[in-house]
User: Fold this.
Amino acid sequence: MAPYPSVHQIEEIFLDGEAGPDLRERFASYFDPKIQMTILGEDHHAAGEHQGSDSVKDDHFGLFMDVLDLSKPNKVNVQRVIGGGESPWACVEIFFDGKTKAGKKFHHECCFVVRFNEAGKMTKLRAYYDTAHLNHHYEAHTEYKSKNATNQSS
Assistant:
């Protein structure tokens, strides 16, 4: 048996299939406590570095959980995995389809470069996102929350 997760195991780790309210917790269960995550880019709200599983889970993926409506069916499709098995490194291409809390369609394509330890936990995660798409939804969600807050206080 190979020392690192296989392609099939990596597909499962990256939650290939339906995504629901437990999305963040399920994915975070594969984080090493000292995981290092880098979100590439400079001119968007998600860019930056995260150190440790709590920061990655809460600070970074918390942004997505705030925007996405996980009470409705969402789909994660792992398009391809390159690596894994004998290599601690893998590249994972993902398509995510769902809805935002503002009711907008959310189709996001991204790529992760990930390093696993021999326990199958992620120690490094580099995210290559469609940042214009994320900014669009983040700004729309901020406006949506503002309108809802105004309507609730009226």
